[in-house]
């Protein structure tokens, strides 16, 4: 069963998926109106693609993740009930969960024959600072691309999307300590990679 999106916490980042979709538009999409779904596609195309690139690390795969995500949203939108069933799940959280699952599924398929790092290495607390605010998007993208796939995924889900270590562990089918170790290791490496970029800025 998919996890619900993280509960709002004051110091969590605002996800790029956090778009308020009117119930009237959802009703039209549920009724099969193509124009309504096209509007939803336009609103979420960029956040889905960005998340997919950060996790999958490849624009071609990210395009496939985008297509598969939106196809699933189209075929399952009738199942989304959101606030009406008392779950309190916003539409963007439901759609984001589909995108994350799709991207991580591709990551896991590439990882099947690889040896994972020890879950217990380099544990750190949850308050590791995000990447330097001075880093522009292009520099951050170049630095993230140099990180191992699992490390990059943890960093993005934690810092950009606001998932907790417990949620990331469940999504990636790993342990909580694995999420913490990847966050600590990735944050250190990301800062090292960004320092030369800033020095030459």
TrEMBL record:
GO terms for biological process: DNA-templated transcription initiation. Keywords: Sigma factor, Transcription, Transcription regulation. It holds the Pfam family Sigma70_r2. Residues 111-132 are annotated as: Disordered. SUPFAM superfamilies: Sigma2 domain of RNA polymerase sigma factors, Sigma3 and sigma4 domains of RNA polymerase sigma factors. Gene3D superfamilies: 1.10.1740.10, Winged helix-like DNA-binding domain superfamily/Winged helix DNA-binding domain (1.10.10.10). The keyword Transcription regulation applies. Residues 139-190 form the RNA polymerase sigma factor 70 region 4 type domain. InterPro entries: RNA_pol_sigma-70-like (IPR039425), RNA_pol_sigma-70_dom (IPR014284), RNA_pol_sigma70_r2 (IPR007627), RNA_pol_sigma70_r4_t2 (IPR013249), RNA_pol_sigma_r2 (IPR013325), RNA_pol_sigma_r3/r4-like (IPR013324), WH-like_DNA-bd_sf (IPR036388). Residues 42-112 form the RNA polymerase sigma-70 region domain. The keyword Transcription applies. One of its GO terms (molecular function) is DNA binding. Belongs to the sigma-70 factor family. ECF subfamily. This is RNA polymerase sigma factor. It comes from Lysobacter enzymogenes. The lineage of its organism: Bacteria, Pseudomonadati, Pseudomonadota, Gammaproteobacteria, Lysobacterales.
